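call fold(seq) -> C-alpha cells
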Amino acid sequence: MEKDNATVGPPTPQITLLPIAEEITSPPSSSTLNEKQIQFTAIPPVLIEQDQSPAYFNRAGIATKPRLLLMTSIGSFWGFSIGAFLGARQSGLQYLAENAHKLPTTVQGWYFYHKTKNYRMMLGGIKRGVRYAGKTGGLCLLYGTLEATMDDIRGEADVLNSVTAGVTTGTLFSLLTRLTRGSFRYSIAFGAVFGLAAGGLSDLYRYAAGDTPSWLSTTSSPSSKDK
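ret:
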C-alpha cells in the first residue's frame, strides 16, 4: 500500500555533452600583429593615391584641367561679347548705307525696315561673335597650356612661367596672323603684361596661403641674414 500511495516526481532531463570537433581560438592580441600591417587612415587608401599630386599644378587653388576649362570659357565669352557688339554695329551701319536711297514712305514700310535691320544686326553679331570666341578661347587655351607645361618643367608655379607663356602666346599669334612690326611689338607687350598680372596674382595667393614663392624667398633671404 505504501508503494501505491508514494508520489512519483517528473523525470529529470538529461543533457549529454557532445565532443567539440574544433577548438575555438581567441583572436590574436594587438601585440602579435605586425605594426606594418596596421594603417589608420581617415579616407580609403585609393583616394589618397588619387589625390597625391604636386602642389605646383594648382594655381589659386585650382587644378590644371579645371583651370584650363575656366580660362577657355572666360576667354570665349569675352571674345563673343566683343565680336557680337562690333558685328552688330557694322551690320547696322551697312544696312543703313545700302537702303539710304530707298527709304520707306508708309508706317508698315518703316516697321519692316527696322525689323529687317534688327535681324541683320543680330545675324552679323552672332557670326562675328562666334569667330572672336574661337580666337580668344584658343589664345587662352594656348596660354594656359604653355603655363602648365612650364610649371611641369620647372617644378614650380610662379610669375616667371606666366610671363614666358604670355610672351610666347603673343609671338605665336603675331606670326600666325602676320601682323606688322608695330602690332607685333604690341602683341608681345600685351602678352607679357597679361602674364605678369596673372602670375603676380597667383604668387600673391600663394604668399597669402603661407607658401612663399622661391623668387620671393631668395630676395628676402639676404635681408633676413643681415638682421
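DSSP finds seven helices and no strands in the chain.
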